[in-house]
UniProtKB/TrEMBL annotation:
It comes from Rhizobium mesoamericanum STM3625. Keywords: Hydrolase. The keyword Hydrolase applies. Its EC number is 3.-.-.-. PANTHER family: ISOCHORISMATASE HYDROLASE, PEROXYUREIDOACRYLATE/UREIDOACRYLATE AMIDOHYDROLASE-RELATED. The gene is yddQ. It comes from the Bacteria. SUPFAM superfamilies: Isochorismatase-like hydrolases. One of its GO terms (molecular function) is hydrolase activity. Residues 5-151 form the Isochorismatase-like domain. This is Uncharacterized isochorismatase family protein yddQ. The keyword Cell inner membrane does not apply. Gene3D superfamilies: Isochorismatase-like.
Length: 190
């Protein structure tokens, strides 16, 4: 049986309604992430929380030591669960994430979190490039509207574009309900 890990990416207070950088659908995504976290814990999977900290007083959000940089209460880590603090978009860059996964013999990774088009994208692609089997839970991820070259891109379209790209070459992309059903089938056949 493959060893599995859940990577919970940047579900931090600044991404919610009263934060400095609110995302579309952050509450619903966090609710679904909490369901995935509970299932991972019940199965004895490694749960790794990744948080972003920005250096400098002029940071737009996730200022180190601020309330906004704290893990959101819906998905708080438990004592003993690994918390990786990153300062770059990619959670593997200049952190011990890969060493943690390898030390635990991880082969399969599930990803939930924020933002779909940035940190979720970076960790998903890097994990796939490192040879892990990756699953992204699409409704446990959130993003925001973007603007490019004068065009406004609604968050739902940004999110869908990134999920489509993952599904094309980098990861299995499932809903929370689909992922929990698969987990139930695996448990029943064990």
């Amino acid at each position: 049986m493959n060893k599995r890990a859940l990577i919970v990416v940047d579900i931090q207070n600044d991404y919610f309604a009263n934060g400095k950088w609110p995302l579309a659908g952050a509450e619903a995504a966090a609710d679904n992430a909490a369901r995935i976290i509970a299932a991972a814990r019940d199965a004895g999977d490694l749960v790794v929380h990744v948080t972003h900290e920005s250096a400098g007083e002029n940071a737009a959000f996730f200022l180190a030591g601020s309330e906004g940089a704290q893990i959101h209460p819906k998905v708080l880590n438990r004592p003993g669960e690994t918390v990786i603090v990153k300062n770059h978009v990619n959670a593997f860059r200049e952190t011990d994430l890969k060493a943690t996964l390898d030390r635990n013999g991880i082969e399969d990774i599930t990803v939930v979190g924020s933002m779909s088009h940035m940190c979720v994208d970076a960790v998903t692609r890097a994990a796939s490039d490192f040879g892990y089997q990756v699953t992204v839970i699409h409704d446990a991820c959130a993003t925001r509207d973007l603007e490019f070259n004068g065009a406004l891109l609604p968050a739902a379209q940004v999110h869908a574009a990134f999920m489509a790209a993952f599904a094309f070459a980098y990861a299995s992309v499932l809903s929370t309900d689909e992922a929990l059903a698969v987990r139930g089938e695996l448990r029943a056949s064990a």
